[in-house]
Amino acid sequence: MTQPLASTGPGLSRRQLLGRAAAGAALLTPLNWLAPGQDVGTLSKARPEPTDAFDAGVATAWFDELLSLIRQTPGYSPPVASRAVAYTAVALYEAVVAGMPDHASMAGLVNGLPPLPGAGRNGAYHWPSAANAALAEMARQLFPAAPASRKAAVDALESSFLATAPRGIRERSIDHGRAVARAVFSWSMSDGGHEGYLRNFPTDYAPPAGPGLWVPTPPGYLRALQPYWGANRTFLTGSPVGDPGPPVPYSTDPASRCFAEAHEVYTTVNELTAEQTAIARFWSDDPGVTPTPPGHSVSILSQVLRQQDASLAAAAEAYARLGIAVADAFVACWRIKYSYNLLRPITYIRDVVDPAWGNPLPLTTPPFPEYTSGHSVQSAAAAAVMTAQFGDVAFVDHSHDARGLPARGFASFEAAAAEAASSRLYGGIHFRAAIDRGLAQGRQIGERVAALALAAMRGLGSSGR
Fold first, then answer.
1. Which terminus of the chain has fewer Cβ atoms in its 10 Å neighbourhood, N or C?
2. How many CB atoms lie within 10 A of CB 158?
3. What percent of the chain has pLDDT over 70?
4. Do domains 14-188 and 203-463 have the same CATH topology?
5. Cβ 104 vs Cβ 317: under 8 Å
6. In the chain, domain spans
7. Is there a contact between 331 and 303 (Cβ–Cβ < 8 Å)?
């Protein structure tokens, strides 16, 4: 159970509490979230602790569960997963923002978000309970096709965070969290991506044909993944974000830049070092096996929040900015992909360089156009918002420990994003231009998300500890 930061309970450290909360253990929460001198008999006048008085345990535990839902629920391709992350994160933020006096709702700041149910002025709220209710509601709304085992896990996790706060405050907080989540979900239904997990490969889309244009690459899917995703509503308002310009012009001339980029992929993959091979596998983040690239970004954020013993307020803001960044990154990237419909390196190499070429790594070329690199765009967008939130933080990425892949250390979020981007060259998936311009495209998106005026005071001084 999420504890106020001021009291971690007898015999337990904050770190132990975070670990137990993430595991779904049912811990008792003392009533010291009421203002000093208050008791259960003064509920009508109770002044609750602010959101930043509580640790991030309820948030990190739910985002761990979100990654399991993405991995195990059919149809959660990277674009669909990024959308689920964003709306879940917005619901968390809006459920607890009333307890963050120097922060404001996102209504009016992001595209089409109407005023949301606010916490009433009369009566106290327990913000971890509000967060728990909102996150549980979003999990059920966004993952109706989840397997029975995951639905049971959602129920168990929600139960594990039911606070022992006085009944009236607990119920008021739960009702508030659920009302916010339902309003956020209702808003989500009009963005163009609703139930996208049911239509990853629409049969009415026929890719354009011609020299240099994308064609499916067996043995993967033979249809295009989410060809209309680029038309979805973004969270950022204003003109389209993240425009990298056109790709390198297609040419089969050995003196052309196009040929040079293809030849770089060809020689790099043929001469991979052990380290490059490890990087390609670590960042592959294949759907169904992992929670996809946006899930990897969430995993990094959760690790850093735990590393820094962050507050619930800091976590709510960080997840919201990250979610918006990766969701808009996929919309912007997919808009570019299906505007230019550039062929994949494996197609060019087999057509022009070496008809017998085969990628020695067990990586499947994804079923959508090449330019720009989705890994690059979303990783750079995530890095920009996390850098703005936390600064240059060194961390060790344990995202794939359970799969037996060695953890990797980074000096900063941008260093991790750069490696994620380069991994697609090592994997034979992308040309250099898609990687480099994808990083620039994502950085532009992330910087705009980081600039959203959620708080009068930026940084950990306002929402952290």
1. C
2. 20
3. 87
4. yes
5. no
6. 14-188, 203-463
7. no
Work out the number of other CB atoms within 10 angstroms of the CB of residue 227.
Answer: 21
The secondary structure of 206-261, three-state, reads: CCCCCCCECCCCCCCCCCCCCCCHHHCCCCCCCCCCCCCCCCCCCCCCCCCHHHHH
**Amino acid 219: pLDDT:** 82
Maximum CA pair distance of the chain? 82
Contact 3, 9 (CB under 8 A): yes
Strand partners, 290: 287
Which parts of the chain register pLDDT below 70?
Answer: 1-48, 121-122, 456-465
242 Rama sector, left if φ>0, alpha if ψ -120 to 50, beta otherwise: left
CB distance 442 to 380 below 8 Å: yes
> 9: exposed, middle or buried (C-beta count within 10 Å: 0-12, 13-18, 19+)?
middle
Secondary structure (DSSP) of 82-109: HHHHHHHHHHHHHHHGGG-TTB--SBTT
**Per this entry, what is the length of the chain?**
465
Question: CB-based contacts of 278: which residues, under 8 Å, 6+ apart?
Answer: 405, 406
What is the Cα–Cα distance from 170 to 172, expressed in whole angstroms? 5
Instruction: Note the CATH number of domain 203-463.
Output: 1.10.606.20
Please tell me the CATH code under which domain 14-188 is placed: 1.10.606.20
